[in-house]
Please model this.
Amino acid sequence: MSTTLQFDGDNAEEGQTEPPMALREKLVRKLWAVGSATLVADVGAGLHRPGSESVFGGHKVAYYGILAGVLPAVAVVMATAFWLPRSHAPRLLAFGKGLLPCAVVVLLAVLAVGGFALTVKQA
Model:
């Protein structure tokens, strides 16, 4: 009977054969990707005025306030992605695992607030 080991952080369990460093590297890549996409979407939305028909048409302070409030969250995500491969603390790995879903929610919030435009070229 053979058994495989699963590495969850620094603890080995049955089920998966990936070493802890591979899981850590995947998490770092995901955090960088989500953090970078959020930063680009946030800066892009900040460079444009809110549409007059949108919810924020008459509330520009709220629009830019929300976008400015996202920047510290992006800084936390990017700093975690930066320090995660340099630290072997299980707490930071657990923090990164919990931070990833929150970072995705922040990205979706920026896309919802800033919106996105499709440019269709008429033939």
User: Anything to note?
Assistant: The two ends are 66 Å apart (CA to CA). The first strand starts at residue 5 and ends at 8. The beta strands are 5-8, 11-14. Residues 20-46 form the longest helix (27 residues).
